[in-house]
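assembly run, all chains below
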Amino acid sequence: MPPAPIIRPKTSKDDKLMAGFMIVIALYLVVALAFPLYAMLSKSFKTASFDLKKYEFQVNKGDGWGPVVSAFEINQTLHVLKPEDLVTSADGRLYATIFFPDFSFRSKTKYRFRQLDPNSSFIDGTRQITDNDWHTYTAKEFRRIILRPSQSIGLGNYITYFSTPALFRSIKNSLFISILTTLITVSLAFGFAYALNRSTMRFKGIFRIIAMIPILIPSLLPGIALVYLFGNQGMLKGLLFGADIYGPIGIVVGAVFFTFPHALIIITTALAISDARLYEAAISLRASAWRTFWTVTIPGARYGLISASFVVFNLVITDFGLPKVIGGQYNMLAVDIYKQVIGQQNFEMGAVVSVVLLVPAMMAFSLDRYVQKKQIAQLSSRSVPYEPKPNRRFDAICLSYCSLMGVFIVGLLLVCQYAALIKLWPYNLHLSLANYNFDVMDGGGWRAYINSIRLGLLTALVGTVVVFSGAYMVEKINGFRVLRTGFQFLAMLPMAIPGMVLGLSYIFFFNNPANPLSPIYGTMVILVVCTVTHFYTVSHLTAITALKQMDREFEAVASSLKQPFYKLLAKVTVPVCMPAILDISIYLFVNAMTTVSAVIFLYSPDTALASVAVMNMDDAGDIAPAAAMGMMIFYTNVAARLIHLFVTRGLTKRTQAWRKR
Amino acid sequence: MMTVSNLSSANTSNSPPYLRISRLTKKFGEFVALNDISLDVSQGEFVCFLGPSGCGKTTFLRAIAGLDIQTSGTVHQADRDISALPPSERDFGIVFQSYALFPNLTVEANVAFGLENQKKSRIEIKKRVNELLELVGLPEQEKKYPSQLSGGQQQRIALARALATSPGLLLLDEPLSALDAKVRTYLRREVKALQRKLGVTTIMVTHDQEEALTMADRIVVMNAGTIDQVGTPMGIYREPESLFVADFIGTMNHVDGQAVSAESVRLGSLTLACRRHDIPPGKPAVLAIRPEDILPVDDVADAGTPTDNRFKATVREMEFLGSFWRIHLVDKQLGDSHLIADLSVNAALRMDTAVGQKMAIKLPPDRLYVFNPSTGR
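ok done. output:
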């Protein structure tokens, strides 16, 4: 019998359309993520140096041309340049006259010069000369000759990095701070989550809200609060017993503050899914509370604990705002990138530090993904949720612990508020709103605040549409397996990329005149693109989770009824997923308001942002206005949260009536 | 008996099949989910795909719907080659086990979903929706949301939605499995009556043999990616062509024996008359008989002497199952196996059956199946 015909399924119109959309969003991610990262990576391997053997001179002091001498030979006798002076950046420049100590532009001496590198050039006054021929100049002209370095591709920058202790010491510092903060935050958050989940203490709702406060403010704000508390003129300076808040102590305390809610969310989820039946079994086996804790509670929450650890580690090692404000002389990787790029204009070295920072960030990210997959597998639909029983002593302990944490969080916030409201600490303690008069200070003024709100709204709007569409297509399309895998990878990548690295990559990619997209550089557009991309992954995962909870057969039913996918999307999928969609938009808004790291390289005078203004005012010594601007961000985020709550409730009433029986 | 003969005549009619499935194979990587399956379905027929989980019945249905298109082989519907077409270009309505009702749309909007974009006026749509809700027996529920309805009602709404566009083919994927027993029995009759009224060609996937037996015109018994037997419910039950079908549908005793001739087998020292088979004499054979076909008889002339397929066996265990007794019989002729016989409560009383007693039984030759253990057929 001949074999039955092989069937090549015909692709439906819907699938073609969805593939088209998906390609568009994938292209967005390629342009907004993959290309810039590539540009940064290649920049880090570009080295520039002055190869002195490639420059040759001849001098005529009126008695005929002397012998040809290379710059190298001159330097051998004169030692005008040390070896480290020869390593430079792509923009490096060297005046030819430094090889002639007795040079005077008034002399009648004539000079001949050529450079021998076919890929290099030199500047003669205003012209760039790329040939390798001899050129003759008078002394007057010769003083304008500028040598350009030869460029090559190699590990030169990395070698420089790892042979400069001031630079590579930051790796150790960053790892030390991140690991220490991770240990402290995860332990504290576990205690808090345990109290919320396993006790019957009062005020649980309030504690939950308080614990989320740090998400609403930029990470550098706790730094400012710590300066007011323990800085050189701090209110509680004595409590430090002479230790300096500027440095590891300040960074760790501030980092614990701003990573606490992130760890708490993950650990609370892990504890919430534990199965009550295991505890009943433990009691029936007469296991002690201590033993039950170590054999049931901890193993049950282990993936949550591990996952929280990686997340905290990643947040700390990639954070830039906090160590910038309170790090003092203690260098960390993220700050090094800033210093190299903004301080020293050494873009290549900034790229190298970025790559160095990418390594631990990528590792923590992939390990976290791996662990989270395991946690999902652990969840069974038949688990019975744990119901805590009242226990007076235990509840009292839990309440005091949570209150202590609450005081820590609210306390730092109140210090900022206080700092923002008093006239001049510590000399004039009268309350005033003078610090909110941002227009008289550097940093962008009220305009920066308006820009931030614009950025937040645009990011929320554009980001939600792009992210949800992308997630919908990748989840619901039939076939196109390669495209889907590629898309999933691109969507997960942003989480592994630290904000500083992303921002720097954007400089390399978008600030290149050869790039047709370069006009967006310095505009609000690039800030929106950068912020959407920076926070893409979490939003994408939220959307995917919501979409996965929908019946898989909706699309099959709709296509059997000959209805296009966009009708199903508009009439069913979007309304049903509305709570998740609103969650994504508020997440994007809040983060756009608070982020500093990615946008620090990308704002222009016209697009200064509130979070950046906090940092710049702090830098300029205007700490009280910085605190005031930080508090403005906090109020705005609180208001946004409240509106979100309000809208969600309203929409739920209108569009989710079906949820009620 | 009227209906049965009517149905069998429908199946053997000479009109070309409405659905012609030819040599379908579906592979998932190395795994072969459907292996070279062919099947014809007539216009207006109700066909059930029956089999254990993992036998490929749902895969088969999804291939017919175009939801998971086969690796090779063709599907023709009303003489149109639909083998490679996506679902949206085929002509079918589908109902899933989960109902897949749109939770945020009212009953009315759910049913009307497929009627929109068809150049129909609002009034026409409204009229059609009411007609359909009437049809499934749920009028005046149109403003409710699916979550306000019971499972059985939701299932009927899903059915109304699938039928809204008057598809030529109705596909039902385990439509009643999520319901409780009483509702299920009721809905079986409802769905069947509706299907007969509309005359829509229907394919239903189920793992519930009772559902298949009561609803289907024809049953397709599937096993490990292949079709084992196709036939009417009666035919499948009374004339199983393989050990698998015999075992899967209803209860079946089997005992190892040996072929003697084309119409007799050896069981222990007994020689029993049986149905025709083609196992060579002396080769092993599996004897099979349904519990209700084992007849209790009043006398056996001489215990142990084979006369007329009768012999005596000992009652080892009795289970009371409400309308009948299930009796487990052992005897040295049966070796290690035992026979299950179903005895009406009255018969058991009359014969004074009790555990440990001897009981005379008859295995009617036309009810005694013989299968080849090496091929299972």
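Chain A has a mean pLDDT of 88.

The interface with chain B takes residues 3-15, 478, 551, 553-554, 556-564, 567, 571-572, 575-576, 655-661 of chain A (CB under 8 Å).

not gonna interpret more than that til we talk
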